[in-house]
Design brief:
- The complex is a heterodimer of chains A (308) and B (437).
- Chain A is an alpha/beta fold and 308 residues long.
- In chain A, 36% of the residues lie in helices and 29% in strands.
- The two termini of chain A are 33 Å apart.
- In chain B, 68% of the residues lie in helices and 6% in strands.
- About 2% of the residues of chain B have low confidence.
- The chains are: A alpha/beta (308), B alpha/beta (437).
């Protein structure tokens, strides 16, 4: 059993509106799984179904091989995008309450909270009210409450919103550490650079349908166009450029570099290898820059959504 | 997993620890008692004012009826004409001058009585004078027609039909008043309780929505558990507040009345006097005894059990609707549209209770309304002191419970969908659609 969570052709209608259309995903154990998609695509609906907040109309969701049942709530930690805390309740009381709702005893919850409060250096907040904290501070409490009961599956919906770069980094490191300790993470965000940084697998949902999923590296491989970014130095700019353009398909390049005379993106001809291109270039000019263009998560996202 | 006790505990503690709740709980009986004390004190102050009234009686026969009382002194003027009497009274700074013009026949004196004073005189003074004169004149008329007043006095009887049910329970008119008071108090209490604490539930749900904690909570708790926890927790807080109010109000009024020497029951002095007089009258004393007796004759066991059942049933029925409204909207201003259909049957129940139960506690209207679930708690509570057959009570309660289960199901549906909807105020049509989600 390598997948912690499997959703099998899950569909959900709200009245006449189809929020999810036979979406299937498989989240491997110990991975960070990016759940991506434009606004209103159906991500939140899927996440709510996994959390048993709403029930799917058709389709099954399995956690660790078992169909979802109420007890599984204890195995899931969910940080929703729309999140908040009771404003007039004290930090400590509130954290204890939420932890107890997740099935911890009061004593367990206290010990673990102390550990986390010390770890994130917020021990002196225990008796403060939420309304006395800043937004970022309240987010920290929320993060702690999400992970406190050591769930197998963590679901973060835009976890970094409201954090300054330093705290965002702190939280990112905590997420990675939790993953290393064996937790599986579903991570939903619009920030593609953090997808790039964190995710092993991604699934892209667009207009209620899953349009893409798999290992991020596999997807990149699949989306690459065998194009190379090339920077050359030569005295003969025009003739070199023309020689290349005769042989290859060429696009303008925008990378920054020191005094390259010729900059372009060159697409490999079918059946050519990168070495063929490189030896052709070295015969014409001095190669200073030669990098394969790998599509970013951002490119993939935009391209996929536009094509659908 | 059952989190209900945990949720109830949190809801209860948050409510009870809330500053404005504490202030409301402890300050409002203080204000109420203080207000009553002030009113009592002021009305006593008003009565304490001594007045003297001069009477110029040209007929010469009416003077004898103006006997001095504690705060009013009558001066009978003689050998004065109207103008000189006016001047005299002004000089003496009397409260006023009562002028009874001479007329040939004493029975025709009526249109010729006038009262002169600086400011317009108090209503009670004038009506007091009127009553005195009326009595004297009607006696005089009767006498002039040759009727013996003594005989009329002797012929006055006081009839009070003794009522007895076939099973042998004695009842009386006073008994009916007592029952009415009991039923009315119970019905009204329920009405107030629903309005105050139903609103509190609604607000606490809206708060959960606006603070965006709801999705965090709902990922560990079933919505229906959260809703029931809220309803029960808030109700317990409400009961706590009510009990404190009653105790504090009682203690405070006791303390106030001993310290200030104001008997709070003295506010309506005239009635008090009448009561005292009445108590001396053996017949009325007898009636009072009957009243005490009829209090013990009330179906007290039935009353208490029915009160608890219908109170809880009715309260839960309405509070689940309040919860649904709270879940459907984003802020309190949007609740208006949905409040109407909740408040209407409640007000209807109170009016039906007041107007038809008094008229005929077992008439068609009151009987029917005591079975309709949205009005039954209030109307049935008002009817029960008059003796409602057990099967009727049981049937009505069963209908109430069935409806309660239905509304909770309905409210939970709306609640489940509504708590996760932000941004726009739903229409009734959309609410209906939510039920099918």
């Amino acid at each position: 059993m390598n997948n912690l969570l499997v959703a099998d052709s899950v569909s959900k209608n709200y009245g006449d509106f189809r929020a999810l259309n036979a979406v299937s995903i498989a989240v491997p154990k110990g991975s960070i799984f990016g759940l991506l998609g434009p606004n209103g695509a159906g991500k939140t609906t899927l996440i709510r179904i996994i959390n048993q907040i709403t029930m799917p109309d058709t389709g099954d969701v399995l956690l660790d091989g078992e169909p979802l049942k109420p007890e599984h709530i204890q195995n899931i930690g969910y940080l929703p995008e729309e999140r908040g805390l009771y404003k007039s309740m004290k930090v400590g009381e509130q954290a204890l309450y939420l932890a107890q709702l997740k099935g911890l005893t009061k004593q367990e919850a206290k010990t673990r909270l102390k550990y986390w409060f010390d770890k994130l250096e917020i021990g002196d907040w225990w008796n403060k009210k939420i309304q006395e904290l800043s937004k970022g501070q309240a987010q920290k409490i929320q993060f702690i409450v999400t992970v406190l009961h050591q769930p197998k599956l963590l679901i973060f919906d835009e976890p970094f919103s409201g954090f300054d770069p330093i705290n965002a980094n702190l939280i990112k490191d905590e997420i990675l550490q939790l993953r290393d300790e064996g937790a599986t993470v579903i991570f939903s965000t619009h920030r593609m650079e953090s997808v790039e940084e964190l995710c092993d697998h991604i699934a892209l949902i667009h207009k209620s349908n899953k349009v893409l999923d798999g290992k991020l590296t596999d997807i990149k491989r699949q989306y690459k166009t065998n194009t190379f970014e090339v920077g050359l130095q030569t005295h003969n700019i025009e003739s070199v450029s023309n020689a290349i353009k005769e042989k290859f398909e060429v696009f303008p390049a925008t990378f920054r570099n020191l005094n390259d005379d010729v900059k372009m993106n060159i697409k490999l001809n079918t059946n050519d290898s990168s070495n063929d291109l490189l030896s052709f270039l070295t015969s014409k000019a001095e190669v200073h820059h030669f990098v394969e263009v790998i599509p970013s998560a951002n490119d993939i996202f935009i391209q996929t959504v536009k094509n659908n | 997993m059952n989190h209900l006790p945990l949720i109830i505990k949190r809801e209860y503690l948050t409510k009870v620890k809330n500053k404005s709740f504490i202030i409301m709980t402890f300050v409002s009986p203080l204000i109420m008692v203080a207000l009553i004390a002030v009113v009592a004190y002021l009305s006593q102050l008003n009565n304490d004012k001594d007045r003297s009234i001069s009477v110029l009686d040209e007929t010469g026969v009416l003077s004898e009826i103006f006997a001095n009382t504690e705060h009013t002194t009558y001066t009978i003027l003689e050998n004065e004409n109207l103008e000189s009497a006016k001047a005299l009274v002004k000089a003496k700074e009397d409260y006023g001058l009562l002028y009874i013009q001479k007329s040939s026949d004493i029975t025709k004196v009526l249109p010729n009585v006038k009262f002169y004073s600086d400011e317009s005189p108090s209503l009670s003074i004038i009506s007091g004078l009127e009553r005195k004169i009326e009595k004297k004149l009607s006696d005089a008329k009767l006498e002039s027609d040759g009727v013996d007043i003594e005989k009329i006095q002797a012929a006055k009887t006081n009839i009070n039909i003794t009522q007895e049910t076939f099973s042998g329970e004695k009842t009386s008119k006073i008994d009916s008043y007592l029952k009415l008071a009991f039923g009315g108090a119970a019905g009204y209490l329920l009405f107030m309780f629903i309005i105050i604490y139903g609103n509190m539930i609604m607000r606490s749900i809206i708060e959960e929505k606006t603070s965006r904690i709801i999705e965090v909570i709902i990922s560990s708790v079933k919505p229906i558990q959260l809703m029931m926890g809220k309803i029960i927790g808030t109700s317990l807080a409400g009961i706590t507040q009510f009990v404190i109010w009653v105790i504090l109000g009682g203690v405070l009024s006791l303390v106030l009345s001993t310290i200030l020497g104001i008997s709070l029951s003295d506010i309506q002095t005239p009635q008090q006097d009448m009561m005292n007089q009445a108590m001396e009258n053996p017949e009325v004393a007898n009636e009072m005894k009957l009243a005490v007796q009829s209090f013990f004759n009330l179906p007290i066991g039935n009353l208490i059990i029915a009160f608890l059942l219908f109170f809880i049933g009715g309260y839960l029925l309405y509070s689940s609707l309040y919860a649904a409204v709270g879940a459907a909207v984003d802020n309190e201003t949007d609740t208006q549209q949905f409040m109407m259909p909740i408040i209407m049957p409640l007000i209807l129940a109170v009016y039906v209770g007041i107007f038809t139960v008094i008229e005929d506690p077992h008439g068609t209207v009151s009987t029917v309304f005591s079975f309709i679930p949205f009005t039954s708690p209030v109307v049935m509570l008002m009817r029960i002191p008059f003796g409602v057959p057990l099967w009727q009570q049981a049937l009505s309660f069963l209908i109430l419970v069935a409806t309660f289960v239905l509304t909770v199901w309905f409210a939970a549906k709306i609640y489940r969908v509504g708590i996760l909807m932000y941004g726009k105020k739903p229409s009734y049509k959309e609410l209906f659609k939510w039920i099918k989600y």
